[in-house]
Amino acid sequence: GGALPPLKIQQPSLSTAPITTVELCPMSFLPGVKLERYVGRVQIHFIKESFSVRETGGLGNFAHVFMVEANAIARAHVLAMGGTCLLGYRIDKFTIMEENAKDQGYSLISISGDAFYGVGIKKGIRPKSYFSY
User: Fold this and answer.
1) HSE (side-chain half, CA atoms, 13 Å) at 51
2) Where are the alpha helices (H) located in the chain, listed in sequence order?
């Protein structure tokens, strides 16, 4: 036998990869979206601490960045479950503590909601994002 030809591995192009967004909405519906199936309940909890709060913009920036990160992880969780939106989005708990003398900050956040797979009224078209956080 002869040698096998080299295996060609095709990488997906970033320009052709589908862009999927997950909407976070406190309501029980999303305007312009037909909900096709319930994916499951989402309840996630995060704790974050920092030992350099002042250098990173203060306690307000620490809390803001943490909330943005938690929402991004919630979106990723819904997407991994096969959903496109998190309805009944709720921040159940959000606590921030600071120790000025030690330049430390601590925060806890709990997020919950119901994940659904939904599509726009026109097949494959997503509506304008009204509720993105």
Assistant:
1) 0
2) 58-81
